[in-house]
Design brief:
Helix content: under 10%
Largest sheet: 9 strands, antiparallel
Strand order of the largest sheet: 1-2-3-4-5-6-7-8-9
Strand content: over 45%
Radius of gyration: 20 Å
Order of helices and strands: EEEEEEEHEE
Number of strands: 9
Length: 174
């Protein structure tokens, strides 16, 4: 893009990101740092503004991602997600995460950013042996598949704690 002065102007949307690496990063939880490293391959992002709905619609995805959080093992995974962002709401149309033989599907919506109301649906297939291996938990021997699905709701209740405002309903089978 050229500006009126003839200079080239590059925006984030003009860039193509093929590989992203976070090395020696940290996530702060309860004011304590927790190390994180992420390596993402074939990162694809798209976002477009719709003037009629005043919303940004987009997708993000990558394959062969590698994540290390704290002292846990490297976790290879992939992500595909589509979303809409509006002035008063965020809608996750669909997110699919695959970690080895385990899968998570998620969709949902956040309304009213100042006083959030969240509603989400989830479906998960969890390889229990893999989950124990990834969390370095050798205290239990387990094999099999856990399948679960349900809904998550959140609306902050005055004078109640964060967790008191959550409602989770679902089913699980193994």
């Amino acid at each position: 893009l050229r500006t009126s002065s003839g200079k080239t102007k590059i925006t984030l949307f003009d860039l193509a990101i093929r590989h992203t690496l976070i090395d020696h990063g940290a996530i702060y939880f309860n004011d304590h740092p927790h190390n994180i490293e992420a390596d993402l391959r074939d990162l694809k992002m798209r976002a477009a503004y719709d003037t009629e709905t005043h919303a940004y619609d987009g997708t993000v995805g990558y394959r062969d991602g590698h994540l290390r959080y704290g002292m846990h093992r490297v976790v290879p995974y992939s992500l595909e997600a589509s979303y809409s962002v509006m002035p008063g709401a965020f809608k996750l149309k669909r997110a699919a995460v695959e970690i080895g033989r385990s899968k998570l599907l998620l969709s949902g919506e956040v309304k009213d950013y100042a006083n959030p109301v969240i509603h989400a649906n989830y479906e998960a297939t969890i390889d229990t042996a893999q989950a124990l291996e990834l969390t370095n938990n050798s205290s239990m021997a387990s094999s099999g598949v856990l399948q679960t699905s349900g809904t998550i709701r959140y609306h902050r209740k005055p004078k109640h704690g964060f967790l008191d405002s959550f409602q989770v309903d679902g089913d699980a089978t193994s």
